[in-house]
UniProtKB/TrEMBL annotation:
InterPro entries: BACON, Ig-like_fold. This is BACON domain-containing protein. Keywords: Signal. Residues 1-17 form the signal peptide.
């Protein structure tokens, strides 16, 4: 039989012819399988044939037109063609299987099945991670098939499992980071016949809520711990009343100053709670303060800590427009917002007495917005301050800075010399009023908040 052999350049389709003295068509492979290590290499396979045949390559790399195993070269001597198969390195952690097919005329097709092992990873992964301060679990993987052990010198870190053989997921458990510095946890993994590997976990410094009062959800609690059954009679003081937070650690108190010199009218100092959770005080006068406390349950809050505060307030018509928000820095009270000064004066008091009052006041919160009934509107107070002293707790206070009644309201310009129900101050669960019209927005999900920020 005098047949001509044809070879196409493509690695995926080759056409051959071989000669054989027999008139019977045939095609045989010396081996039908190749088991290849991950690193790949060159391999030879003999094919005997006396017919034309095509070579198809089914060893395609996923998602591409390339092939991870190809016919690199061939050499024919008589009826035997020696194929050299080139297998690329398998860098994946999954094994792969493909085939090179030989399709001849008038004979049964043959295929060479190539199975390549996956790469056996070594070491650990990942080697470094960063997590939030509140996260208390982490994990990493040990690779290979050798014996290993994992060690962490931190007493409050649990490594599970701490030793084993072969590939394994290692879980770490540890407490939240309640400090104000980033924490680094290191685990050393020693693998037999290999080097040591280190897993490094960086846990962020604490930032977040010190104390948070979800006012509407606290309505029942507020009624039980803050509201008075009757007017306060002992001054100065808080009358033993407070408001516990819904999250974090702290309290809110209202401190009433000595009422000597004030004319008592309809309210001396009465604490109550509104239907939507608003803690409020009637009979407020200059010299009283709201105090808002937040702490870290015994952990010192270092100098340089940034504190964000937020609340919504509403002022009564017998209160000042001008207030001061301060924070305690060591033993010193400092403004929590930038301050302004204002000259105010009056010739008549709330009780109707004449007075010759003039003073320059310093303030950093002005409740100038009124509603459509000329009462104080709902106004947000928000800011960030930075401590300069180490503190066991953060303390914010909020008190009247001026002595004249609410501007634009019924008693505008009169000097505050009496206690009255309209001398009212509150923290509110209601959304801030429309800043242009003073119209109330009756949604009740506002909070009083103290939190640490980066």
């Amino acid at each position: 039989m005098n047949l001509k052999m044809l070879l196409f350049a493509s690695v995926s389709l080759v056409l051959f012819a071989s000669c054989h003295n027999s008139d019977d068509p045939y095609m045989t492979l010396a081996t039908k399988t190749l088991d290849v290590e991950a690193e790949g290499g060159l391999f030879t396979v003999d094919l005997s044939s006396n017919v034309y045949y095509r070579v198809n390559n089914d060893c395609q790399t996923d998602g591409s037109d390339s092939h991870w195993a190809v016919v690199d070269s061939h050499e024919t001597q008589g009826e035997i063609t020696k194929f050299t198969i080139k297998v690329s390195e398998n860098s994946s952690t999954s094994s792969r299987v493909g085939a090179i097919r030989f399709i001849g005329d008038d004979v049964t097709p043959l295929k060479l099945v190539i199975t390549q092992k996956m790469i056996v990873p070594k070491g650990i992964s990942p080697t470094t991670e960063s997590i939030d301060a509140t996260i208390t679990e982490s994990s990493f993987k040990v690779f290979g098939d050798k014996e290993w052990k994992a060690v962490c010198t931190d007493a409050d870190v649990t490594v599970s499992p701490a030793n084993g053989v072969g590939e394994c997921d290692i879980k770490l458990t540890f407490p939240e980071n309640k400090t104000f510095a980033k924490r680094t946890i290191k685990v050393t993994v020693t693998i037999q016949d290999d080097t040591d590997y280190t897993y490094t976990l960086v846990q962020d410094a604490f930032s977040g809520i010190l104390a948070d009062w979800d006012l509407k959800s606290l309505t029942a609690n507020t009624s039980g711990t803050f509201a008075d059954d009757e007017a306060q009679s002992v001054f100065p003081g808080t009358n033993g009343k407070y408001l516990a937070p819904s999250a974090g650690s702290g309290k809110i108190e209202y401190w009433a100053c000595d009422r000597t010199g004030y004319v008592a009218q309809t309210a001396v100092c009465e604490r109550a709670v509104g239907g939507n959770g608003d803690p409020y005080v009637s009979g407020a006068v200059p010299g009283d303060y709201w105090y808002v406390y937040g702490d870290m349950k015994g952990t010192v809050i270092p100098a340089g800590t940034k504190i964000h505060f937020y609340f919504v307030t509403k002022l009564g018509t017998m209160c000042s427009n001008y207030w001061m928000i301060e924070f305690k820095d060591g033993e010193e009270w400092k403004p929590a917002l930038p301050t302004l000064t204002l000259q105010e004066s009056a010739t008549e008091t709330l009780s109707g007495a004449p007075i010759n009052y003039s003073a320059t006041i310093t303030y950093n919160f002005a409740g100038m917005l009124l509603d459509n009934k000329n009462n104080g509107a709902y106004i947000p107070a928000e800011g960030i301050f930075t401590t300069t002293k180490d503190m066991d707790e953060i303390v914010l206070r909020f008190g009247q800075a001026g002595r004249l009644c609410l501007s634009g309201a019924k008693y505008s310009g009169k000097y505050i010399d009496c206690t009255h129900a309209s001398g009212q101050t509150r923290f509110s669960a209601q959304h801030p009023s429309n800043p242009e019209t003073g119209e109330a927005i009756k949604e009740y999900n506002e909070h009083v908040l103290l939190e640490i920020v980066e």
